[in-house]
Amino acid sequence: MKYFRLGEVLLNENLITQTQLEEALSHQQIHKTRLGQSLVDLGFVSDRDIKEALARKLNVEFIESPLYLVDEVVAKMIPEQMARKYKIVGISLKHGTYTIATTGPLNFEAIEDVGMVTGLNVKTLISFESEIEKTINRVYSTPSESIVDSLDPESVANLTQKELDDISMESRVDSAPVVKLVNSIISEAYNLNASDIHIEPEEYETRIRFRIDGDLLVYNNINKNLHNLVTTRIKLIAGMNIAEKRVPQDGSFKFSSEYVSVDMRVSSIPTPFGEKLVLRLLGADKNITYDLHSLGISEETLTKINEAIKVPHGILLVTGPTGSGKTTTLYSVLENLSDEKKSVVTIEDPVERNFEGINQVQINTKAGLTFASGLRSILRQDPDIIMVGEIRDSETAEIAIRAAITGHLVLSTLHTNDALSAIPRLIDMGVEPYMVASSIKCVIAQRLVKRICPHCSKPSEPDLEANLLLNNEIEQASLGEGCVRCNQTGYLGRIAVFEVVLVNNKLQELIANRATMETLRAYVEDHHIRSLRDELVTLVNQGITSTDEAVRILYNVD
Fold first, then answer.
1. Residue 243: how many CB atoms within 10 A of its CB?
2. Could you give the percent of the chain with pLDDT greater than 90?
3. Distance (Å, whole) CA 96 – CA 99
């Protein structure tokens, strides 16, 4: 295969400029990284752009993820140590050709070693490193079903009573099959890019579901007799009271194994059939790059956000329901603003990702550290930029507003349906309209929309009702039929849509004069500010999402 330079490939495809390449080469020398990583770190190009450019140059296929394509028997023809060393995974074996997914199709050493081990011709596909790692973890891990089958009911009962209830016996519990079961469930959730794990007791069995791309999918059903064992194990490591099962509890722990490390937040509630537990995997999505360019934001929206964050003081609010990506957007803005010359402090509940150069404070209500009290203390720390995880009450709102007025840049979130609704929400919290008007510089509303799987997408005709709900603006539509790559769902991954409202002098005047929501909406429409509806219609017309998904998002908004 002919050797070539990555920089030349990207230049030829007009993905980067010569100046950007030279800057990336300097960055590469200083930080001792690969050129591709330096280009991504500097925001010049995305990892997807690099992989797709290499695929075109080498005339090989680029795949989103090998997770749903892999034949585990075929994959295990490669020893685990070799798979992890080269970051490769075997996918299929057909007509004497062994197909592998790799991040580096020019890694001839890896290809030769795979050929020697298998005795076969080797074909390569290109995929993301994080997706290959997930697939490797899935292939070489022990499935929870096997662990469940190995559990003896009698020993389980004894273990629950004698060992799990006795914290001093924790070393013995660590060798028990239940520990392997819990670890397997968490590892599987992590590998499948799940955001939450639901452990739900029912009359005859316990159902385990993962939230993936916003939807809950059944992962496994386990014997009812194992429920108390699993929940007690989780509560024990989460620092919760294992003897108390009548009231809701919260806890947290850090899950670490040889290849997985993730912070977990645990919540329990009593139900008629036992305790239901929900485990949230914090910052587990390894596909996330905290960079505004990588969020899929349109150029028009990106320009507005960049304009908003250039202001020296004021408030930038991000609104939307739980799980809409607000924290990711705030982290991306912070990453953009972070500078050695500035003091950046955050107060969060919980801290989802740690960032170098940013001081992050974790809420601890039991110790008296709330958003309000923490924010007061932060203001005495001489900050330039403050991120408040969420404005939940009037006290926090008032302190944040005053901080913005007195020369700080404040970033925070609110739970409202759209951007403009943040204004009356703050006023309802007791903040004077003139203070809201003078402090709010930008409000961003966002949602996460499911992408149609590109591998099974087909044209479709939008029904009359959907088109009416979308203002009869649909020119063409698409639909995912469902395939092995998207786990038969028709969707693969999600993309964020944004509604950005910059508060100019006229809007300030309207807010200060207590203008109604109808007046504010009329002003925004008259000035052709793109709404969530406009963004969704564009995505439908581009074949990125479906009319059903667009209607679902808009129905929730309206």
1. 8
2. 23
3. 10
